[in-house]
Amino acid sequence: MSNIPKADELFKSIDYTPPVTGWMETPVDFSPGHWCYPAKPEKIEYMESKLPGLWGPARQWLPSDADWKLPPNWKETVVNGFRERLKKFRTLQLFMDICVRCGACADKCHYFIGSGDPKNMPVLRAELMRSVYRGEFTLAGKILSKLTGSRVMEEHVLKEWFIYFYQCTQCRRCSLFCPYGIDTAEMTMMARELMHLVGLNTNWIMEPVSNCNITGNHLGIQPHAFKDIVDFMVDDIEEVTGRRVKAPLNEKGHEILFITPSGDVFADPGIYTFMGYLLLFDYLDLDYTMSTYASEGGNFGSFTNNEVMKKLNAKMYAEANRLGCKWILGGECGHMWRVVHQYMDTMNGDTQGPQMTTPKSPITGTVFDTAAATKMLHIVEFTADLIKHGKLNLDPSRNDHLRVTFHDSCNPARGMGLLDEPRYVLKHVCNHFFEMPPQTTREQTFCCAGGSGLNTDEIMEIRLRGGLPRGNALRYVQEKHGVNLMACICAIDRATLIPLADYWAPGVTISGTHELVANALVLEEGEVRKMDMRQEPLPGVEDEDDDWTPPNMEEA
Amino acid sequence: MNALYSLLFVFLLVLIPLFGVDAAHLRSIFGVCIPMTAFIIFLVGFIYKVITWARSAVPFRIPTTGGQFKSFDPVLFPQNKLDCPQTGAQTFFRMVLEVFAFRSLFRNTAVSLHENNGPVVAYKSSKWLWLFAITFHYSFFIVALRHLRLFLEPIPFFVHGLEFVDGILQIGAPTMYLTDAGLVLGVLLLLGRRLINPRINYISYASDFFPLFLILAVALSGIYMRYYAKVDIMAIKELTMGLVTFHYHVPDAITAPFFVHVFLVSVLMAYFPFSKLMHMPGVFLSPTRNMPNDTRAKHHVNPWNDPKIMAHAYADYEKEFGVPMAEAGLPLDNPENGVPHDEADA
Amino acid sequence: MTFESQLAERKAELAEKWADLVLRTYPKETQKVWGRQKDRFQNPVGATIIETTRELMDLILEWADAEGIARSLDKLIRIRSVQDFSPSQALSFVFLLKKLLRDEFFQPMKAEGGLEELMRFEAKVDNLAMMSFDIYTKSREMIYRMRVDEVKRAQSSLLRKAGLVADVAVDSSAD
Predict the structure, then answer these.
(1) What is the pTM of this model?
(2) Domain spanning B2-100+134-285: which superfamily?
(3) Contact indicator for C73, C135 with CB cutoff of 8 Å
């Protein structure tokens, strides 16, 4: 009996206590799963040909390699780029100077909440940059390096940036709680711009960027294939509703240009939201067109640097001008609307053609003055206005099998302020709507943990732990109210919330808001739907109608 | 360790004037030269830094929105005017609340649900930080204002008013000022938090502890002068008025505690522009707070906007994909683009 | 007094100590944040650790509800299997209960000659470990499956366009 190992001996072989070192001395783990794959060289070469001087040398490398093949003058490039951006962005200059490290932001980041890694505290994420700022650009930092938390730019510092500035989704939750409004999203954008200068990048961002530039959509789908895919969806809508909707592409002379993230065209379940748009527009007999050339509302450029953001965004006005459209209607998307709301007019407003006017709903006559400069309206605003004027015949009982909650996407919430309109729409198309706890919604919403180009599968664990705060709140309403569907107004959400829900709150499905609008929309008096937009039979229908055959069997 | 270094350094700073004045008899150096130099450093450094910030461009209008924006129908969707301002006036009030009430810090106070044999609604949060910060900053601010009595003749009415309200409890003689206690308490609370809370301790440098210790030392030396050493206030006013009117004179009645106090204040002034204490002017310039959320309605100019960055041209797009586009029945601007290359060559 | 009733008497205290040990597997500055902030929405990890250790303490003493134990374990393992832990680190929390029991009871029970009781009870903890291994593996499998599913979903329209996914339909072929 006395041979039983002592409690402490059991643990001798493995040390579970993390090392107690200052953050500058704590090493970073570069094993796979901690980073996204770097961009393929041909993508970088292409972008270099379009916007020269921003991308560093195109090359094959992996973050798990010891040698990242940085260009010989990388240090100079980064430091000079840093100095230049201090003058170009007051945010950067100010946020480098005024943080008092009060710690109000520390537990506000979803990645910190889920991982417990101190470098995920927003204050420390920013210190990764700030320490270099002090060490390179301030007198005190140069003299008293350790005491003021300063260091100079070294290779291991840059490598640490690559890991941690690609563990920030630019959701701005920390900025909300900061007494000085210090915005980590701004610093992440700057750090990524600097890293691009020396060729540190991720394929998940650069491939969509180059694809969007060439073909207009993030997967690089050519226009004729794009049309085929849209036509498939027109077929599907007919299966569900019996109505053959029109889906105009590249047509001139319409009043409205409609642009949505191309994820809605290609990705499940965004496609059902897309069908919702098409059905709604057809029901209204709206004078609109879509475009294959400007078929991407989302802007992956905003995850790289301001130059690409501007270049990709410029397509919207260019196409509105070419097609002679008066204003632009935008689909449900998060970062697309951050760009449209806070950057678009500044960047490209002067390219608007004279034909463009302040958005005015042709159905209700409402003039949307709040979009007077951009001439671009959010579809949820458009639909909320329709509902307010009683222009939609809605039967919310068609969504009675759904118990719905709403996930505020970070960008519309903290970079725009679009909070009540989607709730208004949802409450008119569903009878069962429940809010998640208040400290997890509206301006305090938690990120899906896949924003800012991090929605790739190679960092699934990082995403899942970052998604814990959202998943946890979701599970709460699932247990309390039986919620089985989380609606959102973001294409990245529609992709990333699915694994998040499967893992943290199994049994909850994800949908866009206009999918539910389409479900509830009564096309003509007495219209009976047997299935929802996903072609799943509505509850109660199969009982009454036993001999119903699945739609694709009818003609056989 | 960082805290210890800072504390030792402040001790050292206290010793300098003690030796300097008593042993080396450098009364005019410590009474006039050092404070004036420090004040000049403060002024120039402060202005230089603010100008640096002001010269840095504001390319984009990127307020962090903390509530519902101005909707097409403000009745149906009422705007949260303070957290999501649309106009200059609304932004002004957002800033006022931010600067004078530390609104963002206060946001930490929220209704939360606790799991305690079933969910329980409770009001709790980290409003402590807000409370500590408010106590500290307001006390410091009022103490500083009260000092105006030394630099202005006649003494402005509001200084009298402040002194009256501040001493309203009428404890002790001379009357104890609430803000003296508040300042010391505030510093101690902020210090304690930084030392005890491991999360904050982890992110603290010597440059975070030093100003706190320094301000504590300033406050304590001031309190010592007023309540214990009971220094000759008329002599001090003679000196301070001399500084303001450039008639430098150090009366003999002035004793060492005053020199310690003034020296520490001088260090604080000289240190201020190079430190995180610059958050004081910085908060006014913060682009995520001081701009209205109106860029969809009003044009904002980016001073370094590059008009040469343009979209990939549609003409090039059609040239590249024209043939399959034509086949798919998509309209073309230039029908020639729809002709397959081999036919065109033929 | 049986060992179980001894444990039952101190179960709240033991659960708390166990939770403390689990928290100590995270960085020092994180421990206090997670140990203090009790809001389950602001601090889901800390709340889950405290909740699960408390639940498990009850369930082990009862030793009747295997499903309940699995459910409770699942809550914590789900979190630890996506955090930056090796498999052994992720599941170490079960063995920390063993460590706790030995720290608390080994010496006194040895003196009283009641070590068999402790060993008998430890077998239950071993069972917990085995269940944990199953649950951990299931979580990891789920993550890998989700990675594949996500790629498929992201391009669902394309797969259909390319004719790579066929809709099941009645056709006229002979078989």
Answers:
(1) 0.88
(2) Transmembrane di-heme cytochromes, Chain C (1.20.950.20)
(3) yes
